[in-house]
Amino acid sequence: MTDHSPAPAPAAAATLAARLDRLPWSRTHTAILLALGAGWLFDSLEVSLFGSAVGPLGSHFHATVFEQDAILAVWLGGILIGALAGGHLADRYGRRRLFVLTLLWYAAFTVLTGASWALGVVYVLRFLAALGVGAEYAIINAAVAELMPARIRGRAGAVVMNFWPAGGVLAGLLAYLLLNTLALSDAVSWRCLFIGGGLLAPVVLWFRRHVPESPRWLAARGRRAEAEAIVAGLERACGLPPLEAAAGGRGAYGQGTDGRGDDGPELRPGGLAALGELVRHHPGRLALGAVLDLAEAFGYYGIFALLSVVVLPKVHIADAQVPFFYILGNLGALIGGLVMALFLDRLGRHRTVAVSYLLAAAGVGLLAWATASGSGTWVTLAFMAASGFATAAWTSAYPTFTELFPTHLRAAGVGTSVAVGRIGAIVGTLSLPSLATHLGATASYLLVVAFWLVGAAAVAVFHRRGGIEAAGRPLETLTRPAHLPARA
What positions does the domain Major facilitator superfamily (MFS) profile occupy (predicted)? Predict the structure, then answer.
């Protein structure tokens, strides 16, 4: 990722946070971006492989349609709980430590899923693996926001999110290799998909060794010497002379000797205390994150459920062509997400997110028209467009609400938003195919459109009520505790 914008003048860098934001783009930033993106790619690979494996798995265990749908519901429930727990753990124990733990956790249970001897065991192992994936949502987004310079923070976050459709493309190719080229039996193919996906985790772990702990999180925990050492190392890696922290015993965020900072009056909440602080002091920001995630999760997962159960059988796309269908859809998603990333810092968060959600609603309308035409070609093209708009929407939403939470609550805020969103995913996945069966696909599509429009409305309301536009602004200027005076 290339950044041609000039870094702020060194004279302005008086705190650790400002020194992070003044850094020009370097190989270290690229390594961090790739490491975080590689984890997201592996998450997507793991999730997408399930879509290819559920058919052979169901045939092997003679599972009913409901029993197969229940596997996805259990998976989404695990992500919900994992996002809540992972967010609180990352705020308490740090981003870097959780990077390794969550990766090893869900990789291990993914491999074990491939060795399942009964459908009930599959349920248990998918739930356990999903706990790790859910935690990744909070950890990765918090780390990107806290490590990237403010002037390109949104673009960097969006690029990391777009490793998700890249993982979907890779999963489609792997599924085609195992299910079509090698023509493995149902009893073997689904096991190979899970085991093969899980064994790729060490590659991601190799990348993640480059990711330092967040200096902002360290400073918020009172560990300013460690934060100083990391920032100085990043400055040297960028070819800049390390600057000293501000005088008067004040380090990152202008913290004083009492260990408190501009980030919040209490820097060590956890569990229900963190949720309580979010609700009391940041209700609008938490509501924005929850609504944006609820809308995109309902739309994104619901569309995929509709495609597999209703649309593809109707337009007569053969099973052998389904992997290519999803590969093309993920290519469209990747294009849409990367194009959006070019505008997130330039046009601002509110405008980019609102437009992306409106386009996502339009994309669903296009897919509804293509489905009614009965043409597999039109459905494929419409799916590419709808995936591109939907990915632009959710990959712009995550950086937007992540940066609004204070550092000591950031991962918990993201985790709570994701947990609410998974409720939408569960409801959409289970209800939309049934609704389409009884009332027709158009009714289901209209409901998805409504959810995307709710997301766009949430951004508009947040903006009209004076919600902060964070593009290009240092994280430390976005929140302040009540006991400190307002900043300019």
Answer: 32-467
Cα 416 to Cα 35, 75, 192, 282, 402, distances in angstroms: 24, 17, 34, 13, 11
Distances, alpha carbon 267 to alpha carbons 89, 258, 274, 375, in Å: 14, 11, 10, 57
Is residue 94 domain-resident?
A: yes
Low-confidence residues in the chain, pLDDT < 70: 1-14, 51-52, 65, 179-186, 244-271, 319-320, 480-488
Residue 133 is inside which H or E element, if any? helix 119-147
CA dist 145 and 331 (Å) reads 26
> How many domains does the structure of the chain reveal?
1
Is residue 245 assigned to a domain?
no
- Reduced to 3 states (helix: H, G, I; strand: E, B; else coil), residue 31 is helix
Q: Is there a domain that residue 6 lies in?
A: no
CA dihedral sign, ordered 56, 57, 59, 63: negative
Position 151, amino acid: R
Residue-number span of the structural domain to which 117 is assigned: 13-217+269-469
Q: Is the dihedral of CA 111, 108, 135, 400 positive or negative?
A: negative
252 in any annotated domain: no
CATH of the domain at 19: 1.20.1250.20
